[in-house]
Amino acid sequence: MKNFSPSLQRLAHFLISMTLIVYILIKGQSILVPIAFAALFALMLKPVSNFFERLFSNRVAAIFITFLVALLPVFFLITFFSFQIVTVLGDLSGLMDQLQMGIETIVLWSGENLGLDADQIQEWLTNNFAAVLETPLNFITSSLSSSTVMMTSMLICAIYTFFFLLYRTAFKNFLLTQFDQESRTKARSMIHQAQDLSQRYFYGLLLVMLILGVLNSLGLWLIGIQYPFFWGFLGAVLAIVPYIGTTLGGTFPFIFSLMTTHTWWQPLAVVLLYITIQSIEGNFITPKVVGSSVKINPLAAIIALIIGGALWGIAGLVLALPIVATLRTMFSYFDILKPISELMSVNIFENADAFEKKYDEDRYRLISFFQRNQR
């Protein structure tokens, strides 16, 4: 490698820029999150809008029809969940005593088989029963109290999505003109690949949610849990939030089974059901349906989820994977960022020697970005 002549000015510019970007992402969350979701929704709906635009030769009419087609299933789901939530919450007040009895049955049964003292177990239940319920019930309460804010954000997101679809040609041409004529073909390919990746990711995610909803509902119905389709598809919808959503999706029907059943095996069967389905989903369904489009390794995905959650909370967890997958695709078009794209790839274990074979040149080294221009 050539003698390295560092540029303190470039280093200072980089650190200041990164600090400003993180600050803007945190402080501008309420503005940027709906825009990010709208951009991804627009990419997902673009093929549908193109189809109707070819039929009617009018983009505005095509977008309205696209919205109707897309919103009908959403409206059906919201209506279904609203009625079910009202019914379930209406039963909760009369089921708290049954829940306590259900927890006592399981804990006492476990204590007897483990040789624990029954009086100590009973004392522990008396002192800690309220704390056991505090977390999930607080989650339900906070979710209901923030419904107005959520509906407002959804409306704003829908408006953004409409205009992204309406002005998509102008946005694309604006991005292309930021590159010179020699690089424009590569830029066009990068944009098309990013669009295709986002579309395949979200369509794959919807398919995974449908499969999980059917499997969860069928299993709960066989176990004999009330409202199996509500709990099954609620878990499928929550699965859009990695790790946290899947845990909550199984916790709610487990607690409800303690309230409504009088046997120890049904709550246990609910736990085993969700563990089995999540194992199948994590090792087979998602890698086959969604994994082929994301193409990032688990370490990169975990880091992305941690950063996304730290910056934007639940919204960041949902957006982390598609954004990072898109960034990886974009990185592969710039020499200095190609090694990072390779480092994020799903095949990094098999292609560990690619860095020495393909990227062992000065133009691929990150440190060259901070090098003073040589005249």
What string gives the helices and strands in order? HHHHHHHHHHHHHH
Mean pLDDT metric = 78
**How many β strands by DSSP?**
0
Report how far the terminal alpha carbons are from each other: 17 Å
- Percent helix: over 70%
Q: What is the structural class?
A: mainly alpha
Radius of gyration based on Cα positions: 25 Å
Number of helices: 14
Strand content: under 5%
Shape: globular
Low-confidence stretches: 143-147
Largest beta-sheet characterization: none
List keywords for this structure.
mainly alpha; globular; about 375 residues
Describe the structure.
- The longest helix has 40 residues, at 184-223.
- The chain starts with 7 loop residues before the first helix and ends in a 17-residue tail after the last helix.
- It has 14 helices and no strands.
- With 375 residues, the protein is an all-alpha fold.
- It is globular, with a radius of gyration of 25 Å.
- Among the domains are: 1-92 and 148-167, no CATH class; 295-375, no CATH class.
- The chain has helices spanning 8-27, 29-56, 59-92, 96-114, 118-145, 147-166, 168-176, 184-223, 228-238, 244-260, 265-294, 298-331, 338-344, 354-358.
